[in-house]
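[step 3/7] fold_predict: job queued, chain A
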Amino acid sequence: MPGARAAERFFVDRFRAEGDAEKADYMKAYMKSELGFFGIDQKSPRAASVDFAKAQAATEIDQLLEALDALIASKHIEVRSAAIGVAERRRKDLGVAHLERLMDWVRTTACWAHVDWIATKLVGIVLAKNPKELARIQRWGKDEHMWVRRTAIICQLDELRAGRGDFDRLVKVSVPLLDEKEFFIKKAIGWAMRDVSKKRPELVRSFLAEHGERASGLTRREASKYL
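[step 4/7] structure written:
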């Protein structure tokens, strides 16, 4: 396993060779981010993460995650994306012991594109395998960090969309957040309810009947989209 610097160099050199300066400036302005951009295609970080993960297939997961910690803290947004992609490739090896590290990644990345990816494809996978750990959602929902609260709402999305997941816990974490002014919280609650409605519309109708007046217009519109 290469050290953190060598791992970052693998991605930086590759992305710099593929990058487009004009596109990088546009992406930086669009994302309103202080991070650096290489101006590469969205598929590039995923492709690079596949190659890196294959090369490190024999690396023990905790050792790999230590290297990824440094990539998550990178000053380049695409390197952060690649780190999440590598972790997703090794998602079967992620367990309860890694949840707090993943929440640290949420706090560090603090951008919807990365947080939503971590929440649904990493945190959500661990919780689906370990449903007793869903109790953590209530604590995350009270966290001072807005992106952690968003993660608490959306981490079950894949399960809820499939007609599974713990809807009662989603309600318990969402109701106290209905008065929030944060766009990303209001959107997340509506998004989660919308996905539940695809398989269990009666649950969302009941939720809106009881809590709809408190919910923002954005939350109601998202939640009722398929009703």
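[step 5/7] annotate
The mean pLDDT is 96.
Residues 1-93 form a domain with the Leucine-rich Repeat Variant fold (CATH 1.25.10.90).
exit 0
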